[in-house]
Amino acid sequence: MVNLRKRFSAFRIGRLLICIGLLAHGAELGAQDKSLLWKVTAGKNNVYLLGSIHLLKKDTASSKPIIDEVFDKAQRLVFEIDISNESPEKTQQLFMQKGINLDGKTLQEKVSRETFQAATIWANNLGLDIKMLAPFKPWVAALTLMVVQLQKLGYDPNFGIDRQLAQRAARANKPVSGLESAEYQFDQLDRLSPAVQEMMLRQTLAEMEQIGKTVDDMVLAWRTGDVPSAEKLFLESMTDYPEFREKILDERNRNWLPKIDQFLKLDEDVLVVVGAAHLLGKSGVIELLKSRGYKMEQM
Description:
single chain; alpha/beta; six-stranded mixed sheet; globular; disordered N terminus
């Protein structure tokens, strides 16, 4: 269990929520001269909404000029969680508190025989002892195996766009805040039904071999601002799992709207940075804001 704690102490749950897109399949991508960045205009100020990729490789971690330009204009930054105040120690404590089976049952007892066998095979492939995951819930096992695989492929949350911008904001003394807490994000995962938690693990295992190509395609869609391809990559896999999508995406999107409304009443420009999947689709933040009558411009 100690090794698992160490692995997760380096991650914050906001960075891990890329899982909402990692359960998708690849797609053909077409280059565009846009970014997954929108300007919302209400009169007094501008609010910029940037879809982030939470994990990137070192060689794809560079920002885009338009993002740098908007960062310079913004007087305040808002992330899913306040990265500057959510310490690794606090995140690790929450992870252990929410992720352990309190009923005494093991992971093997929580999932089907087939799912556990597949998890064991992948754990062995990644150099992990499946016994290390025994006390934990299926959603923890899914995230653990996914993160370790991504690490082996060179993906790192320290290169994520949100992490980069948070560090730049600290250097520039720009105020930073969060839309929600790390505890709330853990709770959303923990509130998934047992069946959906097993689905999350099973689907993750099914995608492990292709996960590198999938994330590479996501990064390309993000970098080129290809909204149709990004929607397919990030959202298509959740069509058959409405409970998962509601908890991890749609409910949170709705919760953020009143806060964005308040940002649009300030006397300063605000840059809001959230996982790219939150901005996409009919129930994404962009369409929800359009339905409220706001003028939107993809940049």
